[in-house]
Amino acid sequence: MPWFLGLLVLTLVPILSTVVASVAMIVAGLSHRKVPGLRRYNGAKAADWGLTYLLATVLLCGGHVVLLGLFANEDPVESFFPLGIPITTWALVTVFHLVYCVYAGVRAEKRRPIGFSGIPFFSRGLSAGP
């Protein structure tokens, strides 16, 4: 369930839906803390990815706003790049997020451990075994 909450990004409210999806993944993933075994492990992995994706959103979208504020006021912006690199990177990360949430959600439903989950904030030291 926590992995499929990442699909809330599809509500198509830029930035806000990203924050909501990330927070939902973190909360739902951490709600499995008291359950032993694989559910706890996969829940922690979902929380890890939710927080990693939230940080990527804040850094990349914030970086884009900072770049626009620093450079767009002096001269008119004639092209999207290089100022658009952070927001384009965020869009690519979002596409990866959508695909990976489906993949990891299906894998978790089949009771298989999730490998990659971004920065291991919550899953450090956990094992997928009983």
TrEMBL record:
Keyword Membrane tagged: yes
Keywords: Membrane, Transmembrane, Transmembrane helix
Domain of life per record: Bacteria
Chain segments annotated as transmembrane: 6-30, 51-71, 83-106
Protein name, per record: Uncharacterized protein
Organism: Actinomyces howellii
Origin organism lineage: Bacteria, Bacillati, Actinomycetota, Actinomycetes, Actinomycetales
